[in-house]
Amino acid sequence: MNQNLVSVSLSSEDLAALDAALSTVDEQLAGLIELSVEQRRNLNKMGDKSEAFCRQALILLTENRQILPPGLDLTEAEQDLRSLDQLRPRFARLRRLVANADDSEMALGSDILNFALDGYAVAKVIGKVIGKGAALETMKEAMSARYTRRRGEPPKP
């Protein structure tokens, strides 16, 4: 049952380059914010339909600046729209990378766990044939704590 969903091998130079690239991304996106749950809940959210409305409203207001009261900053709204248009494809790339990173992390963990379970099964069989050693007993205790529980008991964290 040899499972190998992913195989990643990075040199120390690769990791240093990756860290440098991530630092650059952090620096370039330093203006991004983090919203609280409450802030997220209370915001007006722009979906596809409302985005079309917003774009039309900005065009209309740009052509009729004289009707805007001094408190409405059309220049800021136009800059926000330009920023959104510039960043959207980059955010999509970041979301894809994060999704791939999550999947790869899960696959690596699954590969390791499957190998350990296969190795443990082999060690149990070999241990019965050649006798039990201290290392096998330690491994067996660790695994039994992970995979056995008595009826009616909640699983241990």
Can you offer a commentary on this structure?
With 157 residues, the chain is mostly helical. The chain has one domain (12-147). It is 70% helix and 0% strand. The chain is built from five helices and no strands. The protein has helices spanning 12-28, 37-42, 48-63, 74-130, 134-147. Helix 4 (74-130) packs across helix 5 (134-147). The longest helix is centred in the middle third of the chain and has 57 residues, at 74-130. It starts with 11 loop residues before the first helix and ends in a 10-residue tail after the last helix.
How would you summarize what this structure contains?
The protein is 70% helix and 0% strand. By secondary structure, the chain is mainly α.
Share of residues in strands: under 5%
How many discrete structural domains?
Answer: 1
What does the largest sheet look like?
none
Number of strand elements: 0
Proportion of residues in helical segments: over 70%
Query: Treating each run of at least 4 consecutive H or I residues as one helix, how many helices?
Result: 5
Shape field: elongated
What is the rounded distance between the termini? Answer: 27 Å
Spans where pLDDT lies below 50 across 5 or more residues? none
Radius of gyration: 28 Å
Overall mean pLDDT: 89
Please trace the helix and strand order, writing H or E for each element: HHHHH
Structural class: mainly alpha
Give a topology summary.
Elements lengths: L11 H17 L8 H6 L5 H16 L10 H57 L3 H14 L10
Helix pairs in contact: 3-4, 4-5
